Amino acid sequence: MDRPTRLVPLHYVAVGGRGPEDVVTDPDGRVLTGVEDGRILCLDGLGDPDTARVRTLARTGGRPLGLDLLPDGDLLVCDAERGLLRVGLADGTVRVLADTVEGEPLRFASNVTALPDGTVYFTTASRRFPLGQWIGDIVEHSGTGRLLRLAPGADTAEVVWEGFQFANGLTVSGDGSFLVVAETGGYRLTRYWLTGPRTGRAELFAELPGMPDNIWRDGDLLWVALAGPRNPPLDLLHRAPLAVRRAAARAAVHAPYRPVGTVAVLALDDQGRVVHHLARDNSGFRMVTSVCRTGRYLVLGSVWEPGVAVCEAPTAK
Q1: Are the CB atoms for 49 and 15 separated by under 8 Å?
Q2: Model confidence over 73-121: pLDDT tens digits?
């Protein structure tokens, strides 16, 4: 992979809540996000931190993570506590679409994407650890992440693939032939085929230099946030027996955690080729979990920070 170019921060905008984990833009260039206290927010005018506006559109009653804006203006929300939700942004109504799978409660719904025919695919990061203990899943490395599908009109989700290492960000290819799933614990993006001779199969899409989190489609590009760089001691631990990894995971969930200061975002095309790789060391804004573009800016979200970072977008290649 080519040497990264510098990620240029312009300013920071507080959102009045902690952890704007996923950021997506609407057709008017406004940014939507969800924060730790359950609110869905609309961020407008982010080009000027002095006049930027933050409005509350809805409250999920849980912890919203991944988002996908529907053509009719409603918002699909993966809520780590309540499951898969549909939120009416015009009136703030919240409807649960799925909160169980195969007879067990949905735990740790992570990201979601909708297809034109109304089919909804979404990920769950872990079957063993809740959001508050996410690091346990990364350390244990037991691969319990899932890809699920909710058919049009259905009220029960089905599992279509399992065994992901912390399944996270999700999007569909430009031609609708496959999904791309971010495996945070595997440093990779995985392709799941929806059409063609390999329908229903999964394969490597791209190896990455860090831990991918949310994915956002911008025309022909897939923007991917890297929540952290590769960690050689962690890689070594992942080769240890399961009993050792489980003991390390039990310790990790009780240990204090602070993200490193290296942040990065990537843009890839639908062939898995890196078009942009932007990075910054010693960043004061840490643990970037999402990225989207609005106008001439990149907006970075973070499960850790109480606001978003506004950066200079790269020029087209």
Answers
A1: no
A2: 999 999 999 999 999 999 999 999 999 998 889 989 999 999 999 999 9
Three-state SS sequence of 106-156:
CCCEEEEEECCCCCEEEEECCCCCCHHHHHHHHHHCCCCEEEEEECCCCCC
Residue 60 near residue 77, CB atoms below 8 Å: yes
Tell me 244's DSSP state: H
Which residue type occupies 146? R
Question: pLDDT tens digits for 154-199?
Answer: 888 999 999 999 999 999 999 999 999 999 999 999 999 999 999 9
Domain extent listing, the chain: 5-312
> Could you give the C-alpha distances from 112 to 24, 140, 150, 257, 276, in angstroms and in order?
12, 24, 11, 27, 24
The two beta strands, 297-302 and 307-312, are antiparallel
Q: How far apart are the C-alpha atoms of 223 and 69, rounded to whole Å? A: 16
**How many whole angstroms separate alpha carbon 208 and alpha carbon 227?**
12
Q: What is the CATH number of domain 5-312?
A: 2.120.10.30
Locate 243 and state its tokens: 């009993």
Q: One-letter amino acid identity for 185? A: G
- Residue matched to tokens 């007879």: 103
Say if CB 278 and CB 7 are below 8 A apart.
Answer: yes
Instruction: For the chain, report the end-to-end CA distance as a whole number of angstroms.
Output: 16
